[in-house]
Amino acid sequence: MKYLTMHQFLIGLGWTEPMKIQILKTIDDPDVFYVAAFKVGETLKAAAFSEVPETWPENCIAVWARHPVRDDIKKSKTMEALDLVDKGLSRYAAAKQLNISESAVHRAWHRRQGKNICPACNQIIP
Fold it and tell me: What domains are defined for the chain?
């Protein structure tokens, strides 16, 4: 499975024209954040999701994401510390482990409370 841009998702996978139109209507819904392309036999199908599913559909070949997930994004030390906090470490311990200010981690942690967070870079999604 790979993440694709909308253009790659629509053009590169070989959808029929009616299916392309349906996918475009689906992504216009602000609650849809992911569309997965998968095969059932030889038929290409799509499924829409409002959040990352625990498991993608079987035989999933590609995913379009409203907020692209990129593996090449380098996280800041503060964002790395917040990852450690999310895994159960205290803010103090996470800051010390990464050799950064505890107050920076504390402020970033408070800014994120109650907001949507990007799964790729751990930043707040506006």
Answer: 2-65 (no CATH), 72-126 (1.10.10)
**Rounded to an integer, what distance in angstroms lies between the CA atom of residue 6 and that of residue 67?**
11
Residue 11 backbone phi and psi in degrees, to 5: -90, -40
The size of the chain, in residues, is 126
CA–CA distance, 55 with 77 (Å, rounded to integer)? 29
pTM of the model: 0.54
Q: Measured in whole angstroms, how far is the alpha carbon of residue 1 from the centre of its chain?
A: 14
Q: Once rounded to an integer, what is the mean pLDDT over residues 93-119?
A: 89
Q: What is the structure's pLDDT at 103?
A: 95
Which 3 state secondary structure label does DSSP give 114? coil
CA distance 80 to 124: 14
100 vs 91: CA distance, rounded Å: 11
* Alpha-carbon radius of gyration of the chain: 18
Query: How far is residue 126's CA from residue 118's CA, in Å, rounded to a whole number?
Result: 10
